[in-house]
């Protein structure tokens, strides 16, 4: 499955985590629900837990709702971690790396972005590394592309 927060293709578990914000006479309830991977699950759990502990108990109803949400979130977290422990991470097939003219064709739409980064004083090596990593082209092809743009400017 795909994580609903980070969109990574990793094993996920469906969770609903809640936190309460008490405001003496009012209260608000916040929820995170969806298919979450291991990293996003931990971040969401601690986000809601810390909010419950610091903001949840300011009010009569909120005091009791906070305890309920803390217990419910803990049970949900433990169950989801158990599900994720059983699931083996999927290995993505290696992405083919483009080179030569194909790499240039892939990188051309980003010419303006590269020029802006170079104009802002960013190192051409860093720009080329980002292009190679994010767009699936050889580092040498990305470096040639960046150098050609730098010389043309």
What does this structure look like?
The protein is an alpha+beta fold. It is built from six helices and two strands, in the order ββαααααα. It has helices at residues 38-55, 60-86, 100-107, 111-119, 124-135, 139-152, and strands at residues 13-23, 26-36. Strands 1-2 form a two-stranded antiparallel ribbon. A hairpin with a 2-residue loop joins strand 1 (13-23) and strand 2 (26-36). Helix 1 packs antiparallel against helix 2 (60-86). The longest helix is centred in the middle third of the chain and has 27 residues, at 60-86. The mean pLDDT is 90.
Rounded mean pLDDT is 90
SSE arrangement, N to C: EEHHHHHH
Using only C-alpha atoms, the radius of gyration works out to: 23 Å
Overall morphology: elongated
Ranges with pLDDT <50 over ≥5 residues?
Answer: none
β-strand number: 2
Short description:
The protein has helices spanning 38-55, 60-86, 100-107, 111-119, 124-135, 139-152; strands spanning 13-23, 26-36. By secondary structure, the chain is an alpha+beta fold.
List keywords for this structure.
2 strands, alpha+beta, 14% strand, 6 helices, 153 residues
Strand and helix layout:
Layout: E1 13-23, E2 26-36, H1 38-55, H2 60-86, H3 100-107, H4 111-119, H5 124-135, H6 139-152
Antiparallel strand pairs: 1-2
Helix pairs in contact: 1-2, 5-6
């Amino acid at each position: 499955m795909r994580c609903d927060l980070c969109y990574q293709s990793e094993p996920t578990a469906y969770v609903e985590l809640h936190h309460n914000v008490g405001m003496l006479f009012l209260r608000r309830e916040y929820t995170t629900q969806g298919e979450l991977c291991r990293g996003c699950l931990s971040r969401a759990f601690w986000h809601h837990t810390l909010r419950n502990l610091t903001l949840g108990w300011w009010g009569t109803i909120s005091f009791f709702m906070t305890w309920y949400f803390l217990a419910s979130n803990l049970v949900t977290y433990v169950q989801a971690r158990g599900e994720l422990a059983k699931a083996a991470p999927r290995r993505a097939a290696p992405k083919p790396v483009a080179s030569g003219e194909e790499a240039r064709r892939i990188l051309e739409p980003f010419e303006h972005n590269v020029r802006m980064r170079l104009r802002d004083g960013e190192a051409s090596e860093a720009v080329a590394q980002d292009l190679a990593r994010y767009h699936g082209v050889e580092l040498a092809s990305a470096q040639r592309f960046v150098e050609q743009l730098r010389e043309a400017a």
